Each structure stands twice: as structure tokens, then as C-alpha cells.
């Protein structure tokens, strides 16, 4: 386990095109540091083979999803390829109060909304593929979506997602997985060691007011 200084929770938000490998990067980092929490989102997307309720997502009907929004239970939500995806308040509240670091993998507009809601706590990381050819290859060859959906995800990456990378705090170029995970760990350590996140430690030592 990787011990960090900070007692304050940090929200590491990873966005990037479908096929950039966000989920693999997050799974790898969590295997190295089990203190990093994740947040399970709600979605109207149908469950895929190999997924499970409350593990990958909370699967909702459109009516149920809208009721969650209406009740104020959704911090941010976005529509992606015709389905709604949203971060649940309940998933973040408890973990942030306990000072946990949480890693979210969400769409670009979702990440920007989180920055608006948590300007101090959030760190936005954009996960880029090494090239557009690699991205296209990864989207098509994972064979998860129909050909039309894969093409639409690729277009969304070029037209809407990658141009927004300039609004993020960090860029990860996900070519070699272990190098990408090293870079992400370096970001986590540096952000956790920032003075602004560690004032309470100096306070506890009575070194500052
Ligand atoms: P997928 O259908 O491949 O699981 O996810 C599609 C996209 O929705 C991915 O970019 C994923 O990161 C994003 N996503 C998953 N959960 C959320 C969420 O709670 N909010 C937002 N804004 N995007 C999400």
C-alpha cells in the first residue's frame, strides 16, 4: 500500500476517449494502492456481458435515472452514445469525508462539472491514446460495440473529446501500460504532497496557525 501524507480527500478524475484504456489504467493503479477508492456510477446503458450490478454500474431505467436527478442524488451527469451516466452524491460524500482519494472515470463534460463543484479537491487527468490509428484499432478490435457504434465513438473522440484535453491538469499518453501507471502514480504522489493539501498536518504539529 502506498502511504500518502494528506488527510484531505482528493478526486482524481480521468477522462479520455473510449478505447484510450482508462479502465485498465485505473484497475492497475488500484491493484498497487488499495487505499484509492472508486465511485460506482448510475447508467441507463444496458449491462454488458461480464458486468454486474453495483460492481461496474448501478443500472437504471430512464425513469429511475431522472428520479435520482430530481431527488438531487446525482452530482453530475452526461449523455454518451444515447445513454445517461451520472456520479452519485452518496458514492463520493462518505469517502471524501474520510479523506480518501477517489478515482473517477467519466466523460469530459462530467470532469469539467466535477472541477466546477470541487475546484480544490479535484485533479483532472486526460488519458490519450498514442495515436489516432491506435485508438481506432483499439475501439474496433475490442469488439464490444457494433461497427456503427465503434465508428461513432471514434468520431466523438476526434470531434468532441480530444480537443478538450487543454482544459485538464495533466495528460497521460497511454502507450505502454506500466509507464502510464507509473506516471499516474507520480501525479497522485505529487498532488498528495502539495502544501495546500497538507496544512492540517503542520497545524497538528503546531507549526502554523
Ligand atoms: P461505457 O459505456 O464504456 O461504460 O462508458 C461510456 C463513457 O461514460 C465512458 O467515457 C465513461 O468514462 C463515462 N462514464 C461512466 N460513468 C460516468 C459518470 O458517472 N458520469 C459521466 N459524466 N460519465 C461517465
Distance between the termini: 32 Å
In terms of DSSP E residues, the strand content is: 15-25%
The gyration radius over C-alpha positions equals: 18 Å
List the secondary-structure elements in sequence, H or E.
EHEEEHEEHEHEHHEHH
Q: Give the low-pLDDT segments.
A: 1-5
Quick overview of this protein structure:
With 209 residues, this protein is α/β, with parallel strands linked by helices. Helices cover 41% and strands 21% of the residues. The structure holds guanosine-5'-monophosphate.
Give short descriptive properties of this protein.
single chain; 209 residues; alpha/beta; 5-stranded parallel beta sheet; 4-stranded mixed beta sheet; 8 helices; 9 strands; 21% strand; binds guanosine-5'-monophosphate
Task: Explain what this protein looks like in three dimensions.
41% of the residues lie in helices and 21% in strands. With 209 residues, the chain is of the alpha/beta class. Strands 2-7-1-8-9 form a five-stranded parallel β-sheet, sandwiched between helices. It has a four-stranded mixed β-sheet with strand order 4-3-6-5. The chain is globular and about 60 Å long. Residues 1-5 have low confidence and may be disordered. Bound molecules: guanosine-5'-monophosphate (5GP). Guanosine-5'-monophosphate is lined by residues 18, 41, 45, 76, 78, 80, 85-87, 105-107, 110.
Summarize the helices and strands and which ones pair or pack.
Blueprint: E1 10-15, H1 22-32, E2 36-38, E3 41-43, E4 57-59, H2 62-70, E5 74-80, E6 83-88, H3 89-97, E7 101-105, H4 108-117, E8 122-128, H5 132-141, H6 147-161, E9 170-173, H7 177-192, H8 199-204
Parallel strand pairs: 1-7, 1-8, 2-7, 3-4, 8-9
Antiparallel strand pairs: 3-6, 5-6
Guanosine-5'-monophosphate binds at residues 18, 41, 45, 76, 78, 80, 85-87, 105-107, 110.
Amino acid at each position: 500500500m502506498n502511504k500518502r501524507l494528506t488527510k484531505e480527500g482528493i478526486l482524481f478524475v480521468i477522462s479520455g476517449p473510449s478505447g484510450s484504456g482508462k479502465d485498465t489504467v485505473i484497475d492497475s493503479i488500484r491493484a498497487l494502492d488499495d487505499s484509492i477508492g472508486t465511485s460506482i456510477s448510475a447508467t441507463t446503458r444496458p449491462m454488458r456481458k461480464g458486468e454486474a450490478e453495483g460492481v461496474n454500474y448501478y443500472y437504471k431505467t430512464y425513469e429511475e435515472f431522472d428520479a435520482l436527478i430530481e431527488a438531487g442524488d446525482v452530482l453530475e451527469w452526461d449523455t454518451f452514445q444515447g445513454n445517461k451516466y451520472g456520479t452519485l452524491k452518496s458514492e463520493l460524500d462518505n469517502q471524501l469525508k474520510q479523506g480518501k482519494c477517489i478515482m473517477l472515470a467519466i466523460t469530459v463534460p462530467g470532469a469539467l462539472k466535477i472541477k466546477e463543484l470541487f475546484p480544490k479537491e479535484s485533479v483532472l487527468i486526460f488519458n490519450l491514446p498514442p495515436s489516432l490509428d491506435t485508438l481506432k484499432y483499439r475501439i474496433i478490435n475490442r469488439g464490444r460495440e457494433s461497427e456503427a457504434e465503434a465508428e461513432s465513438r471514434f468520431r466523438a473522440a476526434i470531434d468532441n473529446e480530444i480537443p478538450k484535453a487543454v482544459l485538464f491538469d495533466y495528460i497521460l499518453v497511454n502507450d505502454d501500460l506500466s509507464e502510464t501507471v507509473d506516471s499516474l502514480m507520480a501525479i497522485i504522489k505529487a498532488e498528495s504532497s502539495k502544501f495546500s493539501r497538507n496544512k492540517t498536518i503542520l497545524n497538528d504539529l503546531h507549526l502554523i496557525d
